[in-house]
TrEMBL record:
Domain GRF-type, first and last residues per copy: 38-78
Entry-linked InterPro entries: Znf_GRF
GO molecular function, one term: zinc ion binding
Pfam families per record: Zn_ribbon_GRF
Key words of the record: Metal-binding, Zinc, Zinc-finger
Protein name: Transcription factor GRF family
Amino acid sequence: MNELTHLPPSSQMHTFSVKAVKRQGFFNLKASLIMVFCHCGRDAIIQTSWTSKNLGRRFYTCPVQGSNCGFIGWYDQERCQRCVDIIPGLLRGKNKLEVDVQKLGHSNMLLEGKLRESEANSRKLKMYLVISWVCFAIYVMLS
């Protein structure tokens, strides 16, 4: 598969080369960078698809939220069937774990509140016990 088949039409792209010099040598690394432009002429941004058909796949779109430019082209190549089958399950598992963490956090807050309440009651009972022993001691001494 040609690696450029997933890119937008050439009228929306501009390519250029960049030279990079590695510190431990004098060789040049030439890389081709691809600039993708939106239908309105702005630099396109990369977002992630969350649809069940293209879950996790990245695509070019307009940087202006709510614009009518919409989808420009795919950044990623099409996913293999195994990825298409596995990724939704992983996402469902991740979402379930996030819900469980939220529930546990809520339960933890409730338990911490009950613990503080129990500790306050314990302090009261200890104070009542000390007062009762002092009163008993005074009663014994006066009798």
